Amino acid sequence: MKRLFLIFALIATPVFAVQPDEVLDDPALEARARDLSQELRCVVCRGENIDESNADIARDLRLLVRERLVEGDSNEEVLDFVVERYGEYVLMTPTTGGANKILWATGPALLLFALIMGGLYLRRRSQAGEGAGGLSDDEQARLDELLNK
């Protein structure tokens, strides 16, 4: 019984939250709506797009997207309309313009900084090892005296 359950769990397809009453009659518009729903984040469920979310606000957003598509808006116009109302947070992939350039550049800049600092540390460490000679004659004599006791 457990094996059968495991097999079904492995081959199960993801279940979307789109209700039958939300589906558009035109298959092309419905496909566009599904694509747009994959690009929009649910403002309640973090990390879920509105196509997968069962939250009421996600349902409202799905209906809004379909309404705008039926009115004849392009995909970009629909996204712009939703972003204007809810802010850039609703986009699953944030834009690379404006203040977001700082956010996009921070990760690679910190990686580069860490690599430079690590290289400098290793360089200083290797130079410190080269410059350190052996013990002086007095130090060696004192060490031998201590070890022989």
Keywords:
Helicase, Ruva Protein, domain 3; 149 residues; single chain; 6 helices; elongated; mainly alpha; 2 domains
What does this protein look like?
By secondary structure, the protein is an all-alpha fold. The protein has 2 domains: 13-90, Helicase, Ruva Protein, domain 3 (Orthogonal Bundle), CATH 1.10.8.640; 100-148. It is 63% helix and 0% strand. The chain is built from 6 helices and no strands. The chain has helices at 2-11, 27-39, 56-70, 75-86, 100-131, 137-148. α3 (56-70) packs antiparallel against α4 (75-86). The termini are far apart. The mean pLDDT is 83.
Number of helices: 6
Largest sheet: none
> What is the beta-strand fraction?
under 5%
Helix amount? 55-70%
CATH topology of the largest domain: Helicase, Ruva Protein, domain 3
Average the pLDDT over all residues and give the rounded result: 83
CATH class of the largest domain: Mainly Alpha
Rg estimate, integer Å = 31 Å
Strand runs, count: 0
Distance between the termini: 75 Å
Instruction: Give the name of the CATH architecture of the largest domain.
Output: Orthogonal Bundle
Give the SSE map:
Layout: H1 2-11, H2 27-39, H3 56-70, H4 75-86, H5 100-131, H6 137-148
Helix pairs in contact: 2-3, 3-4
